[in-house]
From TrEMBL, chains A, B, C, D, E, F:
GO term, biological process aspect, one: glycoside metabolic process
Protein name according to UniProt: PIG-L family deacetylase
Origin organism lineage: Bacteria, Bacillati, Actinomycetota, Actinomycetes, Micrococcales
Matching PANTHER family: BLR3841 PROTEIN, N-ACETYLGLUCOSAMINYL-PHOSPHATIDYLINOSITOL DE-N-ACETYLASE-RELATED
Gene3D superfamilies: LmbE-like
Keywords, sorted A to Z: Zinc
Species assigned in the record: Microbacterium ulmi
Length: 248, 248, 248, 248, 248, 248
């Protein structure tokens, strides 16, 4: 069975800017990648559409379509929990739905937002839900959302969790401890960004960020990696300690 | 060329208790492992020998012999800079000697003490020297200790640095972010511990610690590792971000 | 249009002791100052009135009258959301009411409690609400409490937020990064304190604190400020970075 | 009136592993010790019973019986609030029930979980409830759960709060600032552990931990304590500053 | 043998303002109190005397006389190492002299400056020396300053270390975890302050601080302490965990 | 007398990349700006010149000439203390020379490196020296480097200190609390960058960084600043609290 990656995203666009490289790299390796968007970002991240006089349902529809296209460009599946944004609220129902996702996907790796973001409370809320659901999904005594108890092979293991990069890293106490080389995956990330036309000004912004993180990949790399010159990168923070049998 | 591991140890015994598993695992994989002891721990960690009325030189000799036996049991080379302990003092000469070691060993990985230890100032001093020498050894404009400039292939790359575990982890702000599975290497670590007869009471103490860290290896492991039941572990803290092309 | 200051206070008295100087200084400059009290402090900070056998409504009335007098002494408007205290609870309704306040006041500066206080959970709750409402009030897709969408000029900008001083600063991890000179405003602050007769013992306590913070104003001032000798001060912590075009 | 100790435990077993020594020591001194379990740990910490096909009520019953036996072995009273686990949810009703407990027990000392635990969200939830209820129970304006106001001697003072040790101390940012010598109390703690047969593998694990903390008791002790060789210990973190009239 | 207290003070006046209450309380209990001043504060804390045109030796003499009077008022012995200030420099000789002091005094408790102070680098330097000498004085292999090895009963145990309060507590990351009731000792502290006439303006400043810390003593005290109303306090931070056999 | 800005730079190029905007903005306002380079960066930051076989003196000369041109482009004076780099060593002589600079320049504002940088130990060393010299320069009892005592108007006040941005901000625990709008000054900063031809690849890197910080200037700005679209920025961290008489 191929490895699987689960990405828990507060709004419909976050996974592209912040984790598109990791997702595309997984897809390139033949792994399964599943994105779950807790909301569409319909109220807090769709200003231009509100200014055009669109209705709530129209805006949700537009965001959904764009996100599906971007996920497709990355090689990922996508689903939407439609929990509402600004604010995104934690609830028993939302948590149960997310537990079901974990048990269905059986992720080997989980990506989500970091736990602090002074500019957007939905991002930490998504992270708290992603973390809490991951723990609940491990417990055989915690029921599925339909009230049935999970079978022994339905509960999940202890997949590592990585926080992806917030918009203002230092203000969110985001100190990267993993620098991911996404050079080969970057063309797919760029293609996914271009599926989001309303945020065209961010295409170059996040391309520059990938270059910046790529410089750090090179500066921090060990001597034998032989990295090519035009390295592109993404930054992550581990939530749990790395388990390994070799220090490298 | 096989990978090489450099361990910078303040005193003659530290590398055994704190990093013996990592060292033996490297040796088991056919890698080169080099331990450099900055001092013998002759004043600060040899109380029983002083109480027996031995001289400074005798004590140094005993500690050297024991450390050589332990290194041998682990499969490592060992050398001694004899910089004196309690206190271990940083100096330009000591730093230059350590730069030479780095350039000679060309390490792929570096292990040393963490930067804080309220119980023993020599440990952070060793860490500061290990870190400073690593940066200097990278620079082509920094001379060797004999005054010659290094050739282009004598300078080192950017090997990752891992801090090994201090005696009282929490008091030293040691929050492990890497848990190393040393199950297969543990017999060699135990054998090395038994080369240090004056600290016999610590054999069981550090065996218990390996069990404790092993439990954490299991609790934090991803679902597909298939770890055996009797896992033994060591804990580490990375100083620089991990560079990788896959999140796991 | 004059600048405006919004102060979000958990209980009816907090704004006087902790931010009275900043409020009076703003009023002295001809700016608008608006205080919003989330509760009256009727359960948690009215022990003497409960001991006198007063009813809940009587206590609320007394606290309201005193707070109105204090606000008037400072030159500020005041309003009360009457959300209840001990505990002060965050709710969608409370948040919506606070969003309305932001959009109505259009503050240039926001003051509230810091995010930690081991002695009083209402204070951090007020801070969380003040911060969350500020972000929601910026979004054109977030409705007003009456369900209507805001017009383009009803949403707010990004006013800086300052946390005022808690009762036990160090225990609340309150490390001031702004020291405000309130020397000229202090007489109005003192007058406002004297509107709260039930806490007469705190008049001298907070006068002493103003002297203490004034000493720090002097110790940290640049050489050309020409501060008079009897400096009075208040301490604040910024939540967002300062934006400026001159370092000073 | 003898001193009294209140222990707020998320699940039915936590108090044994983490604070059994402190509880038994209090009982040995003739003090009153009361354990309140917020849940039975029926969903999150009873995997083996779910695998045996037991029902929810059966599992609760088993956990209750074991916890009562363990409390008895320690010399403590025990009660259960049955709030549900995985997740343990804070609610006004739960908080009011806990306020009643505080006012009934009038504790001189409070023990509970630390505020962070990345592996189990119920533990921090229990801590938040224990802390919030303690503050509410001090206020004469906060009603009892039956709606009556407390009499003057029903409210509580300001008992110190100690956090007991989580399973993975460093990952939970648990830096002990109190090391408790439990040598004399350890036999009762061991007896209490043995009342929990489903977790037999933890008996030796927590005995080893007591030895480890005992070594730290010795390393950190002042010169005149004359501690015997086989010291056993437990580690704690204070939440509020210690109040004393002698530095020692 | 009575208990003994060692106070390591960077300059000749620090011990009075910051730890006078603890010193006088120890003396009141019949304990030995020894103050060691590393410098006289002759360059950095004697501005008024320099402005009067006094010479370096005159200034040292004045500071010595005043400090001796203040120590006497507190009931303490005092000695001076005359290491120079602004900057106070750590050196092997200074450290050896301080090791001798430790071994001579055999302290049960040690007080010194905290490790951070952005306003005065001598204070952290004194703390580092006090801490390093304490560890060296424990080791039987570390010689006395005359080159002789210590006898078995000359080395010291592991006395707890408390940091006393810096001038700007929050800026120095000073978060008190011990609040000392100095009500009974305060008259001697005030008398000692009055031995320092050049800093007359600080008499009321530090009296106000004692009141402030006294309020916190009351706010944090357990219910059964029966503290009188006019409590005076001093604040401290422990460097090592407290060792105890009762939680209180 | 115009305001003056002092910039303490470890190597000959740092001030351009990291603080060129603040320097040029000061010059544009008619203020005096003085850069002091503690070393030329001759060993650690001149790899390409060593590879070309140049001598130490030649390299110093090249670096000096380039730095002078860059300072001139920014409108700043420049001087060199030639203390050596890799490692840059603190010494009494170096400190005394820097005290003289402070007293000569009488700065209203000081800029230097932050106190942590895991990639380059010279940067924190420069910061420590800049901070220590600033405190010594304030004391009338601290002599000038020629042994004379300073006159009353030769000592300095308490200028605020700002840390400029390190190469890898998060790894250096650099959390900006001041965002400086350098839009108008940026052309001079770019011109100064172009005076450093050996680091041509960094011209675009630091232009991108200015755009990135400019985006943050806009995101954090209050509503009335009316910032133009193409904002360029630099990030800073204050070391001492801001002193002000208006919150903004």
């Amino acid at each position: 069975m191929p490895r699987s990656l689960l990405v828990v995203s507060a709004h419909a666009g976050d996974f592209v800017w912040r984790a598109g490289g990791a997702i595309a790299a997984a897809a390139n390796r033949g792994e399964r990648a599943v994105v779950v968007c807790l909301s569409f970002g319909e109220r807090g991240e769709s200003a231009s559409q509100w200014l055009q006089g669109r209705s709530l349902d129209e805006i949700k529809g537009i965001r959904r379509t764009e996100a599906e296209a971007a996920a497709s460009a990355l090689g990922a599946e996508i689903e939407f929990l439609d929990l509402g944004d600004y604010p995104l609220r934690e609830s028993p129902q939302a948590l149960a739905a997310l537990v079901d996702v974990y048990r269905r996907v059986q992720p080997d790796v989980v990506l989500t937002h970091p736990l602090a973001d002074p500019y957007n409370g939905d991002h930490p809320a998504a992270a708290r839900m992603a973390l809490e659901a991951r723990v609940l999904a491990q417990a055989i005594g915690v029921a599925n959302s339909d009230g049935t108890l999970p079978a022994k092979d339905e509960i999940i293991g202890a997949p590592p969790v990585f926080f992806f990069e917030p918009h203002q890293s230092e203000q969110s106490d985001f100190k990267p401890d993993v620098l991911l080389d996404i050079t080969d995956a970057f063309p797919r990330k760029r293609a996914a960004m271009e599926c989001l036309p309303a945020q065209k000004h961010m295409w170059s912004y996040y391309t520059d960020l990938a270059i910046r993180r790529g410089v750090q990949v090179k500066r921090n790399a060990g001597p034998n990696l032989g990295l090519a010159h035009e390295t592109m990168g993404e930054a992550y923070v581990r939530y749990y300690p790395q388990v390994t049998d070799v220090l490298a």
